[in-house]
Amino acid sequence: MNAYTEKIRELSSNLLREGKVDLVIGFKQGTVPMATVPAIARTPEEAATFVWDANCSLNLANYLTNRTEKIGIIAKGCDSRNIVNHIVENKISREQLYIIGVPCTGMVDKPSIRALFDLEITQFKEEGETLLVKTLENELKIDKQDYLRANCRTCMHRNPVIHDVLVAEPVVEQTLEDPFKDVKAIEQMDDDQRWNHFETLLDGCIRCYACRNACPLCYCPTCFVDESNPQWVGKGQDPSDVRTFHFLRAYHCAGRCTDCGACEEACPMDIRVRDFTRKLVKDSLEIYGWEAGLTLDQRPPLDTFKPDDPDAFIK
Amino acid sequence: MDNPYRPYPVRIDEIEIATEDKSLKTFKFVFLNEEDGEKFSHRAGQFAELSIPGKGEIPIGIASSPTEKGFVKFTVFKTGVVTSYLHNMKVGDIMGIRGPLGNSYPWDKLEGKNLVIIGGGFAFTTLRASIVYMLDPANRSKFGKIDVVYGARSPGMLLYRDELFEWERRDDINMHITVDGTDDPTWGYNVGFVPTIVEQKAPKASPETYAIVCGPPIMIKFTQPALEKLGYGDEQIIMSLENRMKCGIGMCGRCNIGKELVCKDGPVFTLKELNRTPREY
Amino acid sequence: MKVIQIDKNDWNRGIDASRKAYHLFGPVTDNNQSMFKQLAPDQYPDMEKPDTIMSPKSVLFPQTEKLLGATLDPTAENHHIMERPETDYSPRAVIGIRPYDARAVALVKLNFDTPEYRDPYWCDAYAATTFVGLAVNQPSVTDFSTAMGSGPFAEEGLDALLVDAGDLYLAKVLTPKGEAFFSAAGFDTVADTDESLEKIEQLKNKAETAMGPLAVFTDKLAQKSILDLHGAPFWEDLAFTCINCGTCTFVCPTCWCFDIQDETKGNSAARFRNWDTCMSPLFTKHGSGHNPRGEKTQRVRQRFMHKLKYFLDKYDSGTMCVGCGRCVEKCPVNIDIRQVCNKMNSYEPQK
């Protein structure tokens, strides 16, 4: 058992034993290699089954929306930023939460690890920064940092920005020359190339909405794609309807997206949906100097109005 | 039906505003092809999909009786995209009808029995079909005593008012018309919710008496204990359910309650049957 | 039982020959995604990677399918009269379909081809299709088909079963449709039956041994009461984990639920059906706003109850899960139907 897991179990169990929270939200071990299960613990015994590894990729803030209990929650850097979002957007109150912060060294990119082998992975073990991956016929030791998810490679907030306790000393934040290389590459395409890029990107979309449902920002009681009166978007596989869903969803996340990668993680078709949201993350930073989910004290740029707004459109 | 998804083309022959708030209209349709009309032979209690090309379909109980030949009638509440569009259509417009769908009230079993018909609001449609069917001179002798409890919010919200008062004057059917409330001092009938009137006015249970209930979920919920108080057993209480439907032929999968599909195995179930299923309606 | 042997060097030639008589569908990897698709004239089924993310159900049941069309032009004689569009139902062959997916087709047939109604779209496609299966020599860790009435070498729903025996395929011909396909492909080398059946049996035993002992149990499901299972306490925790996307239902080879939607473009109206999912609250929401399965717990329960109990009770043809393992693998939060099935199978209500 790694030190993080041990500490998470201890802290969660204590919280429940002492009655400080009604439940703790964390991860349990999955049933297949490289899978974890977001789960709820209501007793110290249940909390003793929590785990932490480089597969705890989903964003647990997604499970907070509209809950009324007193909640303990395990939060890595990005989860903590979405907890801030949730508090700022009044989906939960700070007083309801006891945040067990996890300084994060990145989550692994499952598709690229799978791509190393012809056969399916039968075992996955993490030993510090080394990953031991087995198939029926093969076994590899790889360096975790070489197989991080794309969003983890450019993450500037590995340490939780808000927490009540940390499971370990903060980790050193990454320094990057240019975190937006990927976006710039798309920006530099001409119109046709860019259109083709996004067309190919969405090719395999089956509209299961896993990206939306894994996203902590997507908590609208009725999503615009589900609205039936009036109906904004067709429900079939017509490419224009598939596009409309992805474009509008991305814009709905502008200034709110923390680039946590849950959307890509959830996608059964391995579609790089972050190609949409990343651009908006970059624009928010460049236009408003804004990074989502860092502070409780400031409203996000797209839900505020300033009388001295330089643009005329709103006046 | 060769293709159960293909609606029979029909023409709107008559439109009548059914309630004072104009939220319900009764549409009379005639089939464009006579042979379609012959194929469309229904039993009271069945429903059909009203089908507007480009807008969609809605499942609606058939309000006309099988004994009324040459047309079919539906009374439609304006609520969603399709029904709102339908409310704006005119006499002469062409659309489609797909059906008849679902089982019906169990007429074989009901022959020779006394019946208590209980309806509320705008769910009275298939009950109207049933009453007209039973009162038809060819059929009246097949049934014993008939009692009807029908309630609406206010006098102006009662469907088929002319017929109701005509039945009121007959001596081969006992009408118990009620409204939730009214400020009309000339209102000469009952005031009170359907379950209360059932308890006061409906005949006590006997092995020869069956109750048919059709109404909004809340009315069904409270009518059931009222009938049980009168001694009705769960095989004598017959209910017509609503659930969200699309295909109407048991394939699209959304209207199930447990293993039963409301569209195909229902919409009519005995309370005994319902007691065996999850109450997901 | 006739067994044909096909030299793998001769495979592509036969596939090309069969194209004259069949539209071919098979596993292909496109844009990094493995899918069952209609093969382009120069495309061959990827027999090395036949385990697709999406099941082949779309061959008979496309995710979006036009059911009816009509013109809205009031000057046209047939305006507002909906008719079925012309669709090509000439023979198709699905190459490389896995045995569990073929069983799924047989189960889905119970829904679309009933004594009362026949879905002409599904049934016409089904009648046109020949299923040429490929046995699973090396089952995946998520494959539990042997527990669900199928297995790596099961034959139900197939017209022929190919067994990969190294340099050649041994093909069990199971129906006249299968016979016709091999004859169109020019695969006509009859193998020594006893010898090849023994070889097939060996490979089958090897595959089943690799899967290990059965760890998913369905034996007590039939005797449970629907209401007891419905009231079981374990649905709550399961629902907490579930993010209520439709992934499990879309990758599932037996999930057949659909939505019907109308669309218009200019003066033409079309009625489509699209795959739908019981995970969506809209699936059951009434026009009045009332929703009998408005809570996530109710929806999660519905999926498992439908697969493992309602279907079983209704048709007496086993569960509506064939054990392909796609949902286990693709569920973003790793909800594992194997565990749910065992919970249901062993559930005893507290008296």
TrEMBL record, chain A:
<dbReference type="InterPro" id="IPR009051">
    <property type="entry name" value="Helical_ferredxn"/>
</dbReference>
<feature type="domain" description="4Fe-4S ferredoxin-type">
    <location>
        <begin position="248"/>
        <end position="277"/>
    </location>
</feature>
<dbReference type="GO" id="GO:0046872">
    <property type="term" value="F:metal ion binding"/>
</dbReference>
<protein>
    <submittedName>
        <fullName>FdhB5</fullName>
        <ecNumber>1.2.1.2</ecNumber>
    </submittedName>
</protein>
<dbReference type="GO" id="GO:0051536">
    <property type="term" value="F:iron-sulfur cluster binding"/>
</dbReference>
<keyword id="KW-0408">Iron</keyword>
<dbReference type="InterPro" id="IPR017900">
    <property type="entry name" value="4Fe4S_Fe_S_CS"/>
</dbReference>
<keyword id="KW-0560">Oxidoreductase</keyword>
<dbReference type="GO" id="GO:0016491">
    <property type="term" value="F:oxidoreductase activity"/>
</dbReference>
<keyword id="KW-0479">Metal-binding</keyword>
<keyword id="KW-0411">Iron-sulfur</keyword>
<dbReference type="InterPro" id="IPR017896">
    <property type="entry name" value="4Fe4S_Fe-S-bd"/>
</dbReference>
From TrEMBL, chain B:
<dbReference type="Pfam" id="PF00175">
    <property type="entry name" value="NAD_binding_1"/>
</dbReference>
<dbReference type="GO" id="GO:0006221">
    <property type="term" value="P:pyrimidine nucleotide biosynthetic process"/>
</dbReference>
<feature type="domain" description="FAD-binding FR-type">
    <location>
        <begin position="5"/>
        <end position="107"/>
    </location>
</feature>
<dbReference type="InterPro" id="IPR012165">
    <property type="entry name" value="Cyt_c3_hydrogenase_gsu"/>
</dbReference>
<feature type="binding site">
    <location>
        <position position="263"/>
    </location>
    <ligand>
        <name>[2Fe-2S] cluster</name>
    </ligand>
</feature>
<dbReference type="InterPro" id="IPR017927">
    <property type="entry name" value="FAD-bd_FR_type"/>
</dbReference>
<keyword id="KW-0001">2Fe-2S</keyword>
<dbReference type="InterPro" id="IPR008333">
    <property type="entry name" value="Cbr1-like_FAD-bd_dom"/>
</dbReference>
<dbReference type="InterPro" id="IPR001433">
    <property type="entry name" value="OxRdtase_FAD/NAD-bd"/>
</dbReference>
<keyword id="KW-0479">Metal-binding</keyword>
<keyword id="KW-0813">Transport</keyword>
<dbReference type="GO" id="GO:0016491">
    <property type="term" value="F:oxidoreductase activity"/>
</dbReference>
<dbReference type="GO" id="GO:0046872">
    <property type="term" value="F:metal ion binding"/>
</dbReference>
<keyword id="KW-0249">Electron transport</keyword>
<feature type="binding site">
    <location>
        <position position="255"/>
    </location>
    <ligand>
        <name>[2Fe-2S] cluster</name>
    </ligand>
</feature>
From TrEMBL, chain C:
<dbReference type="InterPro" id="IPR017896">
    <property type="entry name" value="4Fe4S_Fe-S-bd"/>
</dbReference>
<dbReference type="Pfam" id="PF17179">
    <property type="entry name" value="Fer4_22"/>
</dbReference>
<dbReference type="GO" id="GO:0051536">
    <property type="term" value="F:iron-sulfur cluster binding"/>
</dbReference>
<dbReference type="GO" id="GO:0047806">
    <property type="term" value="F:cytochrome-c3 hydrogenase activity"/>
</dbReference>
<dbReference type="InterPro" id="IPR017900">
    <property type="entry name" value="4Fe4S_Fe_S_CS"/>
</dbReference>
<feature type="domain" description="4Fe-4S ferredoxin-type">
    <location>
        <begin position="311"/>
        <end position="340"/>
    </location>
</feature>
<keyword id="KW-0411">Iron-sulfur</keyword>
<feature type="domain" description="4Fe-4S ferredoxin-type">
    <location>
        <begin position="231"/>
        <end position="263"/>
    </location>
</feature>
<keyword id="KW-0479">Metal-binding</keyword>
<protein>
    <submittedName>
        <fullName>DsrA1</fullName>
        <ecNumber>1.12.2.1</ecNumber>
    </submittedName>
</protein>
<keyword id="KW-0408">Iron</keyword>
<dbReference type="GO" id="GO:0046872">
    <property type="term" value="F:metal ion binding"/>
</dbReference>
<dbReference type="InterPro" id="IPR009051">
    <property type="entry name" value="Helical_ferredxn"/>
</dbReference>
<keyword id="KW-0560">Oxidoreductase</keyword>
